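quick one, 495 residues, struct below
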Amino acid sequence: MVAVLLVAGGVLAAGRFPTDGTHYGLWSIVPPVVALVLAFTLRDVIAALFIGIVLGGVISGELNIVQEFLIPSIGSPDFALILLVYLWTLGGLIGLWTRTGGAVRFADWAGAKVVRGPRSAKFFAWAMGLVFHQGGTISTVLTGATVRPVGDRHRVSHEELSYIVDSTASPAATIIPFNVWPIYVGGLVAGTVPVIATQEEAIAFFFKAVPFNFYAIFAVLMTLLVAWEKWPWLPRRMREAMRRSRETGELDREGAEPMAAEELTVLRIPEGYTPSLIDFFGPIGTLLAIAVIPFVVTFYIQGNRESPSLPIAEAFVLAVLAGMGIALARGMKLRDVMDGFISGCKGVTIGALVLALAVTLKSVADSLGTADYVVQTIGPWVSPIALPAVLLLVTMFVAFSTGTSWGTYAVLFPVAMPLAWSVHPEPAFLTLCFAAVTGGSVFGDQCSPISDTTILSSVATGCDLMDHVTTQLPLAMMAAGGAAALYTVLAALIV
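---
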């Protein structure tokens, strides 16, 4: 393998492979594709990601991958935000709950009030996913942390729970778009076609296209049916997970490597401390109040559509501090509080490592022009009737290969909108293409083992990452297939 990589790197460095300046031709897709194939075959995501990064360095001629890719990626503000906020504060909060017993107390309360068994526990998880619909990372973290103790109590396998958490995160954010998604996408598509000239028109177009975001709609509805155990077919691994958890109480398969360590699952409540609902609702309530209320005020009341206040980082930090303050006020020693927080942070170390490599591979894909190559290769060969479905599939592939929906949006929307308008300049057709890109990117982000939402769903629910991916992917593919078929039918009627 090393010899092949060195030969390939030498050939590329010698300029024998043509490139148009924005990509490296077919070589552009090799690193993410190899990483994905190895992740599925080896079931070792860390090794797969590392090999993909090295391969990308060889192809680009940048053999010093640490200086060129790794350090810039993990030193970026975006990665720091995810690491410090979504991983360490999430881990710290869950670790704190192992000392206060707040999450378990909530599970007892929810079980008495709402949940009666595995099906109602899964429905509860689905409903919480819609409640926490602000976006991919925040949704997976909030929903997973909230519903895991309930699911564990009622023998819901971690594969089922992670699927529900992941499938109601980004998909729900795009069909209940009272969040920053329309603002972000609006900035990308404004001015790309005559009928979307301004940011305000672009945001309005996002809302107009919601009923045609078939993948996201199908994903959320299918997840509901799976939760209620009314969906007629489940993949073999998911059926095995359900049977195992119900019959034996084992929430993970034998040999699984859950993304959440023991520090996040074992209760160590200090002697004399009585768990209370305030230990759970205090931090969660603080997080929601700080994150959601400023957004509602600035976006809806003050009318600030371009830069509404969304203090996510502050909300997570204050939630942890609120949990600590409540525990101290209720009599827990400071040492026990800090031990819980530190143990929780230690428990997400593997998740942090996987995420660092995933972010680095995305940087490698960007430098190789992976998305540009895919778009330029497929675009000229598409018929008008097939264009919406093809855009769906292309965005699925790009997002799955790069592990990001927003990154895919940034690359594809400026290309897809003019392409759709040039093929058939009609608003209804443009709406289909817009919705296809929106949904396809969500699919890739949701299902890719190198996506932050996929990783965080596994972390928050304590699931083995590849177990989550392999049990979720067939169901997501069914939703995508239905969406592609419907896009083709509607495009035929319009064109």
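The chain has a mean pLDDT of 82.
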